[in-house]
Amino acid sequence: MDLEQFNRLLLQSVGVGLAVADPETLRVLVANRRMRDWFDLADGDPPSLGEILPALDRDRLAARMAAGRPLTLETEAKIGRKRASLAVEITSHDRDGQPVLLVECQNVSKLRELEYMIQSYSQMVEKQNRELRKEKERVERVLLNIMPKTVYEEWRQFGVTTPRRYDSASILMLDFVGFTEMAVTEDPSALIAELNDIFTAFDRIVEQFGCERLKTIGDAYIAVSGIPEETADHAANIAGVALRIRHFLERRNESHQHRWRCRMGLATGPVVGSIVGVQKYVYDIFGPAMNLAARLEAIAEPMEIVMSETMQALLPPIYRSDELGLLEIKGFGRRRLFRLTGSDDLTARPAGRPASWSAARLAE
């Protein structure tokens, strides 16, 4: 076997399709076996590159060849029963002093399949990541409903939270008048929808004053200020929340069938805050201020806000209040109490308690 026969055998046996074409007519001058198989080239009148490569742009080819740069494109060919993707590269060469075009075709079907799989996998991973982010956001919203944000951040980072004592915080405890009777006489779906609407408005008011909604227990609503972030304005903040909530209910009652009336108790003092429970987490606070707020809420008249002397002393002058006198509070003894009536931001209006109100029920 001479060198020319060896080169011809090598040309026919390589795994890529090779062809030589005339740069003027683009007619295929010679092609190896793989090129003939892919493009079904028969003996006789040779085809042009435009016939076997429909995507070929002659002007672009001429420009590339004039610049001495290869032209690359992709096409398809039928291999057996399947369509194969072929990467085509056309370069300009000199053959015995005459310019010729060398066309090289490689089967890149496996590569394209791999790229498609990688792209599909990336899209699937991205979709799963979006779903995970949505689920994480949903879980965070749920957890932020049961614990303050800073407590949640500590719990997420360390897996535990440290019980913390707050020397001075303010608590608002609210309960609706006659809700138990409404629960058995009114349509439950409509009643809960109204309660949800009202609590949503309360949440916005609480957020507006930089306070935290601690929890709801049935129709009871508890908000705090000074927890977990300590602030010197905790009494003023929680007083503002109480007045705004009452103002909201008064405005709402003017246009709704159900007239919602509430009692509110405000107290200031030391408390301890922590997450309690193992399977069902809840952030709760304990201490005399919490108990006193509950006592004051229980003795308040409908749409009345009763607060302790300690809290009244911390309020700035824009808040107005009436003294209720020294009253016996169960578990706390005799305490001087006040009724929060308004502020410069809201019209002062004594609410609830008639002049003949007796302190006897305080010790019940």
Automatic annotation (TrEMBL):
Every Guanylate cyclase domain range: 170-297
Keywords: Coiled coil
Top-level taxonomic group: Bacteria
Pfam families tied to this protein: Guanylate_cyc
Recorded coiled-coil stretches: 111-145
One of the GO BP terms on file: response to oxygen levels
Single GO MF annotation: adenylate cyclase activity
GO CC annotations on file: guanylate cyclase complex, soluble
Name of the protein: Adenylate/guanylate cyclase domain-containing protein
